[in-house]
Amino acid sequence: MSTVESSSTESEKPSGGQSLQRTPGGGEKAGPLHSAKGATKIADVVVTKVAGIAAREVAGVHALGGGASRALSSVTHRVGLGDERSQGVSVEVGEREAAVDLTIVIEYGESIPTVTQAIRDNVIRRVEGICGLSITEVNIAVNDLYFPGDDVPDPEQPARVA
Amino acid sequence: MAELSATAPDSARVRLARLSLDAALAVEGVLSGDVGSRGMHVTAGGTSVVRGVRVAAEPGGRYSVDLGLRARMVALPALADAVRERIARSAGLSGAGDQLGAIDVTFHDVEDAGAGFPASVGSGR
Q1: How many CB atoms lie within 10 A of CB B9?
Q2: pLDDT digits (tens, 9 = 90+) for A18-31
Q3: Measured torsion, CA atoms of residues B83, B86, B90, B95, in degrees rounded to the nearest 10
Q4: What is the CB-side half-sphere exposure of residue A133 using CA atoms within 13 A?
């Protein structure tokens, strides 16, 4: 089961963060990452971590990542190699803007549109606040629903025949 | 016969790299220097290697400074500005202020210590 919710924000549209602003002449105003004294660059892994943590902060999110990536992550985590904060998050980072793709598992009973909107708002707020990058897109794929009993192993079934 | 020195003194470029990295590491929120995945943030000269910063000559006798850093999960543009100010102050105090060109800062990684975001980050929208 999978549904994708997509959101794009106009880069010219003023937002609470520091967006790329275009002047009528087509020129670009420097954002918080560019000044006369030098430029600030943010690596992809930084945006990935921030977006992953921001998504997990939202109530109703059970996990990030698809089934395969969660299974692999649980193995790598056990041997001390994995970083589950970057699981289910992929980003594209430019000099002033970034786009974020998330794959998530939502708890059964939560409203998917409400949770995905809350994720989108929180990811934009955190990435813009920490990284100073303007977010152009937060695409969210809801990969699965989580039921509270899903991770409890089934008790041994009694034999159906003697 | 004069004795040959085993190690040549550091060049102005290497001295500026060392000064810049030391100044950056003194800023609250900066954890360490980081050469980056491509190993670009390194300054080498003579027998000295300074990891986490690349200093290169620019026209006009100045040097550009490009730092690679790991930091705490704080507002990174403000942290980069604090690093620039600290480096400019240190360079001025050591008489290298006129050698300093643009200071670029690249954040290669952040650490959150498992506690999520500080309350002050990203709450101003």
Answers
A1: 10
A2: 333 333 333 444 67
A3: 90
A4: 29
CA–CA distances in Å: residue A28 to residues A71, A124, A134? 44, 21, 14
Asked whether residue B37 is assigned to any structural domain, the reply reads yes
Asked if A125 lies within 8 A of B123 by C-beta distance, the reply is yes
Ordered DSSP codes for A145-159: EE-TTTTSPPPPPPP
* Closest-CA residue to A142 (of A110, A113, A103, A115): A103
Please report, for the domain that includes residue B53, its CATH number.
Answer: 3.30.70.1350
The span from the CA of A120 to the CA of B56, in Å, is 41
Structural domains of chain A ordered from first start: 3-17+40-146 (3.30.70.1350)
ipTM above 0.85, yes or no: no
pLDDT in tens, A77-111: 566 655 666 789 999 999 999 999 999 999 999 99
- Residue ranges of chain B whose CB lies within 8 Å of a chain A CB: 36-37, 65, 73-77, 80-81, 84, 88, 102-110, 112, 116-117, 121-125
Look at residue A149 and tell me whether its pLDDT is greater than 80: no
Name every chain B residue with its beta carbon within 8 A of the beta carbon of A17.
Answer: 125
**CB pairs < 8 Å spanning A and B:** 92
Contact B116/A53, CB-based, under 8 Å? yes
Distance CA A54, CA B122 (A): 10
Strands A34-35 and A38-42: antiparallel
Q: Which of B17-31, B41-55, B64-78 has the lowest mean pLDDT?
A: B41-55
Q: Is A42 on the interface with B (CB under 8 A)?
A: yes
Task: Tell whether B122 is covered by a domain.
Answer: no
**Whole-model pTM above 0.90?**
no
Within-domain flag for B73: yes
